[in-house]
Amino acid sequence: MTKKKIVLMSTGGTIVSSGESATQTTGYRLGNLGINTLLDQLPDLKSKIDLEELAVSHVDSSSMTSEIWLKLAREAQKAVDREDVDGVVITHGTDTMEETAYFLNLILKTDKPVVITGAMRPATALSSDGILNLYNAFQVACNELSRSQGVMMVLNNLIGSARFSTKTHTTNVATFSGLLNGELGSVVDNAVMFNNKVIRPHTLQTPFSIKDFEKDETFPKVVIVYSHADDDGTMVRAAVAAGVQGIIFAGLGNGCVPNRVLPEIAKATSAGIRVVRASRVFNGAVFNGLSEWEDAGMISAWNFSIIKARVLLQLALKKGITNVDELRKLFEAY
Ligand code: ASP
After folding, report:
1. Residue 138 Cα to ligand 1 middle (Å)
2. How do residues 83-94 score in pLDDT, each as one tens digit?
């Protein structure tokens, strides 16, 4: 049997971090460890997979930037465009993994498997999860059923979708979950099992691509404003003053907008800023709200998490999709 060719791209994160002792599972740092330290512990792998490695960055993903996103997307696109490459595995910190995954899910033009993995425990810790996650990510990337699934997140034996998977726990290895939207499948030992498929547009089905960044590499400035009891619109005003192009408003419950905030949002939208009405609540969608919210030009986020809504709005604005009705349709469909 011919070996599958997989390109492994590393970006940093806990998976290559080290603590001072085997019992340290928090407060560790990125040091000199590289992804090869983990690969060396998977001696069988190189006999099964034709592996090519590329270090894209070496950052804790809490410091992930759009510059690194663009570099990663370009390298991943270059890799999947090659005839000899069967798939891509990316190692990444878990803090912003779902954002990077969703960005790639919208922008990469391929049906080849692209799998992101990482770890919750540093490479030096007892029961570190990185090596098994990496091994499982390769299993998924090599599996024929993984084609056309969009970008996948493989951790803790689960295959999550970039669209729905989210970090739910600060330290637990069972942190990623698709919540009520579920998982794509699982990977245990060498068995890759898919149960679901995401029908929301991804990869080849979207109009977005890295070509959108050819002439100008900047990303539209879109911020998240998190609402709360006693919200008087201070943060919406601050965002407008900072010159943002978009605001994801994390409203209350079903995307409710406090009375004192609505006039600030109306000022923002009449200045051309696009405002998405999302929710602080993890599960469920933001359904139709009050007519005055819609009249103020707010766009419902439906079942988008606030952080993935931000990625979609950035890419839409970059593409020149600024019409409110078009943006409303986009959020409903994606
Ligand atoms: N802070 C780390 C990061 O996101 C956490 C992790 O990788 O689990 O890079």
Report:
1. 20
2. 999 999 999 999
